[in-house]
Amino acid sequence: MVDKYNAEATDILAYHALSLSMTEAVPIYEQLLSAFPTAAKYWKQYVEEYMMLHNDVAAKQSLPVTDPQEESQRTDSIRKVYQKAVTTPTHHVEQLWKDYENFENSVSRALAKGQMSEYQPKYNSAKAVYRERKKLVDDIDWNMLAVPPTGSDKEEQQCMAWKRFLAFEKRNPQRIDSESSNSRIILSYEQCLMHLYYYPDVWYDYATWRADNGSMDLAVKVYEKALKVLPDSELLKYAYVEVEESRGEIQPAKKIYESLLGDGENASALAHIQFIGFLRRTEAARKYFVDARSYPNCTYHVFVAYAMMAFFQDKDPKLAHNVFEAGMKRFMHVPEYILEYADFLCRLNDDTNVRALFERALNSLPPEKSVEVWKRYTQFEQTYGNLASILKVEQRRKEALSSAFEGSLHDVVSRYSFMGLRPCSSKDLDYLARQELLAKNINQKAEKSVLPTSTTSAKVNYPDTSRMIIYDSRQLQDAALLPNNAELPAASNSVLPAPAAPSVVGTGTTKSLDKILGVLPPALAAFVRNLPSVDGPVPDVDIVLSILLQSNVPSVKTGKLAPVPVTSDLSGANKSRLNAGAVPFKSSKQVHSGGKRKDMDRQQNDETPAQSQPVPTDLFKIRQMKKARGVTSSQTGSASSSSGSSFSGELSGSIGCT
């Protein structure tokens, strides 16, 4: 090749190497890999060429033989290659087994049976493992590039596919020796990291597996390599420092913490806390705590953590108390810090200082920040105080928080509960919670001030119930089929007169309304334009929803719909509309023509199923039925006959009118 970095020419050369023997292909692969040392596809092709055992077997079989001893050595060498191949879960393992069987039979049929029976179970195991492994490998996209995770579905699927494959290799399904199994697992992790290069959990799993198998030095190397790829990953740094500290390497662990802290100005509170804990275990943490408290990013968490370390681990309650008091000068306005300080004093059983702390905090905190402090104060009195002190604190809380906490059964439940034991059922608690929420919403709405310039009218518009009609679904179905003429209105024509369009005062409001209506579909816009103007009060959505949530709506069992009730007080117009929906429309000639009894019989026969009609006992009806059957059969025989000649004159006349 003139240009060794020409990708197209390289692919052509790699494809050409597939058609060559292994001896001729090796120089080509070496040339390709010297130009592209990280090209995984060329490495894969090179290795697979070595793994194709047919070339190996053919090479050994083609060796020249000079004496029987060399023939025996060559046969043993070929046999070992076959035996290793048929016990390896790889491609074409079934074909390899057939070739091995032919080879043994060609050498000695007497010895072939023993050799085949010995390796038959191993071959079956390799074949089963290959099939199971192939299912996992097929889910992996081997062309996926290593990019930082973006959270896409494809990346998540590939990550899970790799983890399933790694878990499969760790189970050692083929039950091979530990050294071979570990080699396969290492290879699987290296392959996984070629695609999931920027995933910290994969690096952590790899390092943890190395440490669990007794290779602490190799685990450290994995962490070092991972931090070169992900230098800003705090998770990997904490995991790395844990490994270093666990094996007694204090100075390397301290350097990792210093890389986390930097200059200390921009370090997080969590980094300060973890470094203080590390120094307390290895050196001394007091000096660093004094320096850390002066940093601007030092939050109350650092004070609480150092005080808890002094109390629980160093067994020094005096130092812990001093740390909390020092923090009060800086975090008096933070309710969470007050609660942590109160918990510490409760552990000391110092109820006097707890009450003093609550009083100090409540005098400095605004009402909106003191809700949790008041709640903890009442809980403290319920545990350490008497009934008089409990009622006193609860009354003070109600006064301080105005109407946010009115007297309710919740106070009784709180006073007479212990751990998970309560003096009421869960249903009662749900009811009390809904009542409290409803009362809170009502109080919030009541506190809203009404503007003095408000011109809201107190008049309420009620619907005109005298013009109500009974709804019948058949009206809309059948009325749409009727012609839209003066005698019979169409289904779109309403019984009620169209309401007047809402009057809008001011051109600006009219333009805004027209702009909104222009966006809506035509049918919806026409509906909105016909709506009457609303001059009454606007309902409060929160209160309506709260009332609906408290209402017990009975469940309705689904069943057959009941027939539409017939009322006797309908107006003439409504009766005509119902008839139009229930009975097919007939012309005036058909209505006034003779044979009314026949029409009624036909209508009953059309509306009543044949299975539910009773057998007629009237001789006249029986003859009519026979005559109708005869007419039907004659109609079927001659479809071109006249309709009027088959039926009565009435029906023929009606058809002629149309």
Keywords:
658 residues; 33 helices; 0% strand; mainly alpha; single chain
Q: What report would you give on this structure?
A:
The protein has a domain at 7-138. The chain starts with 6 loop residues before the first helix and ends with a helix. Helix content is 65%, strand content 0%. The chain is an all-alpha fold. The chain has helices at 7-17, 22-35, 40-51, 53-61, 68-86, 93-107, 109-138, 153-170, 178-195, 200-212, 216-229, 234-246, 250-261, 269-282, 286-292, 300-313, 317-331, 335-347, 351-364, 371-384, 387-400, 409-415, 426-447, 473-479, 507-519, 522-529, 541-550, 572-582, 588-592, 596-607, 619-637, 643-646, 649-657.
What would a concise description of this structure say?
The chain is mainly α. Helices cover 65% and strands 0% of the residues. The protein has a domain at 7-138.
Topology of this protein?
Layout: H1 7-17, H2 22-35, H3 40-51, H4 53-61, H5 68-86, H6 93-107, H7 109-138, H8 153-170, H9 178-195, H10 200-212, H11 216-229, H12 234-246, H13 250-261, H14 269-282, H15 286-292, H16 300-313, H17 317-331, H18 335-347, H19 351-364, H20 371-384, H21 387-400, H22 409-415, H23 426-447, H24 473-479, H25 507-519, H26 522-529, H27 541-550, H28 572-582, H29 588-592, H30 596-607, H31 619-637, H32 643-646, H33 649-657
